[in-house]
Amino acid sequence: MRERVEAALQSCLKLSEDCPPRLLEGIGYSLLGGGKRLRPVLTLMACEACGGDASAAMPAACAVEMIHAYSLIHDDLPAMDDDEWRRGKPANHIAFGEANAILAGDALLTLAFETIAGGIQPPEVAAACCLDLARAAGAEGMVGGQVADLEAEETSVGTVEQLEAIHRRKTGRLLCAALTLGGRVALADPQSLRSLQVYGENVGLAFQIADDLLDVVGTAEKMGKGARKDASLGKLTYPSLLGEAESRRRAEALIEQAREALAPFGDKGHRLDALARYVIERDR
What we know:
This protein has a two-stranded antiparallel ribbon with strand order 1-2. By secondary structure, the chain is an all-alpha fold. It is globular. Helix 1 packs across helix 4. The protein is 73% helix and 1% strand. The chain has 15 helices and two strands.
C-alpha cells in the first residue's frame, strides 16, 4: 500500500508550468521525502474494511498526506518547534529558506482539497470528504491543537486530561479524518463511520504516546530527527507526567480499545487491526 501511495503522490505533483520550479521542488522535497505513510494507508484500509475499492480512495489518501506534510514543514519552522532535521535530512526551511518553506506548506494545504475535489466521485462524497478534512485540519482540529501545545509550554499545563485534549486535536483529528474519508468513499453507513472514528481516536492518542516515548528512548538515526528534544524544551509529554511504564500501559490499553471498535467489520478489519499493533511496536 505504501508503494501505491508513493506512486500516486508523485502523480499529484505533475503540475503545470504556472507552478514555479523552486516551489515544486520544495513541495516534492517534503511530500516525497519518505515517512511511514500511516495516514494514507489508514484511508485505504478503512475503505477496504467498509467493502469499498481502495483505489477509489487514493485521492483522499493523498490529500491526507499532503495535509500532514504541510503541517510538518510548518512545525519545523523556527517560530514553531524549531527543528533542523526531518526524516533524516535537513528540514524544508533549512533546504529552501523560511519563506519558500512557508509557501510550500501553503501550496500543499490547498492542493489537498483540489485533489479530493477533482478525484473523488460522486461530488457529494467529495464535498463530505472536504468537510471532514477541513474540520480535522483547521482551528478546531490540528491547528487548534498546535496552538494549545505552544500555550502549554508557557503555562505549564499539568494534567493528563489537558494533555489528551491537546493531542486529540493536534494528532488525533487528522488520523480520524483519514479513516472516515476512506469510509465515505466506500459509502459506509453512519454506524461504520462511528466505529472508524472510535478506532482513530484511540490509535491517535496511542500514536502520540509512542512518539513521546520514542523521544525518550529512541535514537536520532532511526527516527530521522533529534531525540530527547521534548525534555530540553520543557514540553509537556506523557512520560513527563506519567513515567515510561505507565505511558506504555496507557498506550497498550488505547490500542485494545481501538481493536475492539473494529468488531463490526469482521475479517475485513484485519489490516486495521494489524496496523493498530504496529503503532506501539514501532521504533521510529
